[in-house]
């Protein structure tokens, strides 16, 4: 082996090189298609010749039948599709090797060129396959391609692995089809193993190696600059190259450095016969026994999600743009890993993971059943690894899913993969790893039977509608982050998989509750858990704190990056004021400060924020952090003033005369300047509320929600110019109305909730039909649950009414209905009726705005809400996952424990002021 001068290689490349030529027969992706002739045997538009866009899933083109993978086989129609397409090739291809390449066909594919079989029928949907059709091609006239496709395979093991699963089942030529022309002496493919220390090995697969002399390898930057050039004699059809690059820039998910390797085979005269270029990265993967997973000698935790290739309009057919969009959304959630569930994705998705920076678990297909038989399994595994081997993002292989592995293939992964990456069995304790699925929180105590295994659940916190994912993650991740043998985990699943049904006027269908499991909606709409995950998995974490008058500007901070110093990030501190309730919603930013901190990965430190002289006059301190690529890491807002201090500034002071009071046997009728309020004389609840004769439909409250309380006594009296209506309950709980003539109505509440209560506070009726929206100062804009409190920020928010059922209907986010936290004030905007404002003079109060509808089949995400429509609460309940009740998801998910002897005064308190002006 010897170093070759760069100018010699460049001269050879320019003058003599022959590169692979590509001609697409189909389009390149879901949005760039070509029409082929098509005949479908059954279902929509069957029994007649038509045309179809290729690539595509034929159901999404209006053919065949829709199947979800859990439907019994006997209920399905195994429709077939016959494709025809005529094409010409360039005349100069006459003496070249011509190959037809199929990126993916569902599921059995018989290919003919000019009436003759191109090769054996291919079985298996998610794998690239190809045929040498040199002898079948005519270069002087038109050629005829025929592809006969069976949606369900004749091989039962293939159908069980791919067609009997928890996802939509489609049919057709769903990925691109193209021709490749090479010289008869050529490089078929390469397999690269590039280590972080610069060690570079490659297996170069050469056709007709005896007719060429040597191999040149040039390592290039992505901009084409040469890093090194090497030369080696060709030994055999598989020639192993071993070279070394000094001080390479390594690949990791935070700095995904990539290179090109340009392979050239030369004849004895030094003439380049054929070239092959491959992108790769230098990185080293280790699974260390009873320790963890290391990338480039750095122990990592995977903050990951499972992902199917899916789009409502296109089904399994995708595009480079859609892949990049998905990867960017994951990175925006501060994820660093993705699992390919339960099949290998399009090449452009893996390319995006390589270049943007996501760790990948790549998977041989299976779902809870014995996987492919030995013969077809070996063939498909060869195709999988041959196609995906060089992606630096792939760090592990998965042999099937949830008991679907073929154990006879375990050693084949190592044999076929030049990098010898470890194999895992998702949902199993296998080899060095434990990837058990859907653990209860208590499992994280690590007192089970796999104490020494590297632990990372390849599926956990199963989403459904608005449940799972963010709900429970804070508790889980606290334990997982602090467990040295935990290598992270993968949430189920990235997106709601609602397909546009072409047989139902493009109605979105999730097959009931089988497919609305996503963090984002079907068109990548961001749901509430998206922001919770972004917050919890942010690589910058601040220690929990409240800002008080004693605040000295110091925030305890932790760098949870694995490779990045925080001095590479941008951190901006802003002091913010928010407009008043009667003003147009906006904010003003006072002092702004750019802060730099030198904090190494996985270290803790202190961030010093400069305090303006008048800092206590601001409403909030905001920190905005962006990474080295200018992408937002997260935004944090801390209220500077508590609710009592802020609302004291906002509530109008009154010097109005006494309200007028009229009594009946059962009612107290109170008349103010522009307002009439009728109270129930026995229990103090509002019966009727009129503003200038127009109904404000707030009524039947306050009513305690945590347990039934019996009225002990009720009285009313004047205190100076205020009317006081006081109701006392057994156990000395009480509430007190304080009514001014100017329309400001105070409500003081003191009570003891039931122990182990789901929620605690008071509620009112306000019919949903009268509400158009709300504006508030507090945490938002998304709703919260007891176990999903992160991902919202303190600020001034406004949203219009919607009736979205997360993942099922509406798909308008943020949802309007539900719990909202840390409310300072809120304006309820009325329809055909005046609205009202309420000021909260207590800390940490939740506003419950109407009752979200449960989905049709909510599983364990079904929620119980307080009675009534609008509630003010000291505590709220948690959300479950698809399969597990909320109580299985950790401390934040269990009901409240209340011990009156441990609370000052033995009671909870809340102070509200209603403004009906």
UniProtKB/TrEMBL annotation:
It is an enzyme of class 3 (hydrolase). Its EC number is 3.2.1.23. Its cofactor is Ca(2+). Gene3D superfamilies: 2.70.98.10, Galactose-binding domain-like, Glycosidases, Immunoglobulins. InterPro entries: B-gal_small/dom_5 (IPR004199), Bact_Beta-galactosidase (IPR050347), Beta-gal/glucu_dom_sf (IPR036156), Gal_mutarotase_sf_dom (IPR011013), Galactose-bd-like_sf (IPR008979), GH (IPR017853), GH-type_carb-bd (IPR014718), Glyco_hydro_2 (IPR006101). Residues 1-17 form the signal peptide. The keyword Hydrolase applies. It catalyses: Hydrolysis of terminal non-reducing beta-D-galactose residues in beta-D-galactosides. Residues 50-183 form the Glycosyl hydrolases family 2 sugar binding domain. PROSITE patterns: GLYCOSYL_HYDROL_F2_2 (PS00608). GO terms for molecular function: hydrolase activity. The keyword Signal applies. Monomer. Belongs to the glycosyl hydrolase 2 family. This is beta-galactosidase. The lineage of its organism: Bacteria, Pseudomonadati, Bacteroidota, Flavobacteriia, Flavobacteriales.
């Amino acid at each position: 082996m010897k170093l070759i001068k760069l100018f010699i290689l460049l001269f050879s490349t320019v003058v003599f090189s022959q590169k692979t030529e590509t001609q697409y027969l189909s389009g390149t992706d879901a949005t760039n298609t070509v029409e082929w002739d098509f005949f479908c045997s059954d279902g929509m538009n069957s029994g007649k010749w038509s045309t179809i866009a290729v690539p595509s899933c034929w159901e999404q083109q209006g053919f065949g039948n829709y199947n979800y993978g859990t439907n019994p086989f006997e209920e399905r129609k195994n429709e077939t599709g016959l494709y025809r397409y005529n094409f010409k090739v360039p005349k100069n291809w006459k003496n070249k090797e011509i190959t037809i390449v199929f990126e993916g066909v569902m599921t059995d594919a018989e290919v003919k060129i000019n009436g003759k079989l191109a090769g054996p029928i291919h079985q298996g949907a998610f794998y690239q396959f190809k045929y040498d059709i040199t002898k079948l091609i005519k270069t002087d006239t038109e050629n005829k391609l025929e592809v006969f496709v069976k949606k369900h395979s004749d091989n039962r093991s293939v159908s069980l692995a791919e067609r009997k699963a928890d996802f939509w089942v489609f049919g057709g030529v769903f990925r691109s089809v193209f021709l490749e022309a090479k010289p008869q002496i050529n490089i078929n493919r390469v397999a690269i193993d590039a280590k972080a220390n610069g060690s570079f090995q490659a297996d170069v697969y050469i056709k007709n190696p005896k007719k060429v002399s040597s191999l040149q390898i040039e390592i290039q930057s992505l901009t084409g600059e040469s890093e090194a050039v090497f030369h080696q004699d060709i030994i055999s059809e598989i020639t192993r190259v071993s070279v070394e690059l000094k001080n390479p820039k390594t690949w990791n998910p935070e700095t995904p450095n990539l290179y090109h390797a340009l392979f050239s085979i030369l004849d004895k005269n030094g003439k380049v016969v054929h070239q092959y270029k491959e992108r790769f990265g230098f990185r080293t993967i280790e699974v260390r026994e009873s320790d963890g997973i290391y990338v480039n000698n750095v122990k990592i935790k995977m903050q990951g999600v499972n992902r199917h290739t899916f789009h409502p309009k296109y089904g399994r057919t995708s595009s480079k743009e859609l892949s990049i969009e998905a990867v960017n959304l994951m990175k925006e959630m501060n994820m660093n890993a993705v699992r390919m569930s339960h099949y290998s994705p399009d090449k452009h998705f893996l390319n995006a993971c390589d270049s943007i920076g996501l760790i990948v678990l790549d998977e041989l297909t299976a779902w809870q059943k014995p996987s492919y038989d030995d013969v077809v399994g070996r063939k498909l595994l060869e195709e999988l690894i041959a196609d995906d081997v060089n992606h630096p993002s792939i760090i592990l292989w998965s042999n099937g899913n949830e008991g679907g592995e073929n154990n006879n293939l375990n050693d084949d992964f190592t044999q076929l993969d030049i990098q010898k990456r470890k194999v895992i069995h998702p949902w199993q304790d296998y080899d060095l790893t434990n990837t058990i699925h859907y653990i209860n929180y208590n499992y994280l105590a690590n007192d089970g039977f796999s104490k020494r295994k590297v632990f990372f659940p390849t599926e956990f916190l199963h989403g459904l509608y608005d449940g799972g994912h963010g709900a429970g993650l804070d508790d889980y991740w606290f334990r997982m982050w602090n467990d040295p043998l935990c290598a992270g985990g993968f949430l189920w699943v990235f997106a709601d998989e609602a397909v546009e049904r072409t047989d139902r006027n493009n109605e979105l269908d999730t097959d009931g509750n089988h497919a609305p499991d996503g963090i984002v909606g079907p068109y990548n709409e961001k749901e509430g858990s998206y922001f919770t995950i972004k917050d919890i998995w942010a690589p910058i974490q601040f220690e929990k704190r409240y800002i008080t008058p004693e605040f000295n500007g110091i925030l305890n901070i932790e760098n949870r990056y694995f490779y990045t110093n925080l001095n590479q990030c941008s951190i901006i501190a802003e002091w913010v004021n928010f407009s008043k309730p009667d003003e147009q919603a906006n904010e003003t930013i006072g002092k702004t400060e750019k802060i730099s901190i030198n904090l190494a990965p996985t270290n803790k430190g202190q961030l010093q924020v400069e305090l303006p002289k008048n800092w206590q006059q601001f409403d909030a301190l905001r920190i905005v952090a962006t990474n080295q690529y200018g992408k937002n890491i997260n935004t944090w807002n801390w209220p500077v003033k508590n609710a009592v201090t802020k609302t004291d500034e906002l509530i109008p002071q009154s010097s109005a005369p006494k309200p007028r009071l009229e009594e009946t046997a059962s009612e107290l009728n109170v008349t103010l300047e522009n307002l009439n309020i009728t109270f129930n004389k026995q229990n103090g609840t509002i019966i009727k509320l009129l503003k200038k004769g127009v109904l404000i439909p707030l009524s039947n409250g306050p009513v305690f929600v945590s347990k039934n309380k019996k009225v002990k006594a009720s009285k009313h009296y004047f205190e100076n110019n205020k009317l006081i209506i006081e109701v006392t309950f057994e156990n000395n709980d009480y509430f007190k109305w304080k009514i001014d003539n100017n329309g400001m109505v105070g409500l003081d509440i003191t009570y003891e909730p039931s122990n182990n209560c789901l929620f605690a506070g008071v509620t009112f009726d306000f019919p949903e039909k009268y509400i158009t929206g709300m504006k508030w100062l507090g945490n938002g804009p998304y709703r919260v649950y007891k176990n999903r409190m992160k991902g919202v920020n303190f600020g001034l928010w406004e949203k219009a009414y919607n009736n979205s059922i997360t993942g099922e209907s509406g798909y308008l986010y943020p949802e309007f209905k539900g719990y909202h936290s840390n409310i300072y004030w809120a304006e309820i905007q009325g329809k055909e009726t005046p609205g009202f404002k309420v000021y909260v003079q207590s800390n940490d109060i939740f506003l419950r705005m109407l009752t979200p509808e449960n989905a049709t089949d909510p599983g364990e995400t079904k929620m119980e809400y307080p009675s009534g429509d609008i509630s003010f609460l000291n505590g709220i309940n948690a959300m479950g996952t698809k399969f597990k009740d909320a109580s299985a998801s950790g401390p934040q998910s269990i009901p409240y424990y209340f011990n009156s002897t441990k609370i000052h005064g033995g009671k909870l308190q809340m102070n509200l002021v209603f403004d009906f002006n």
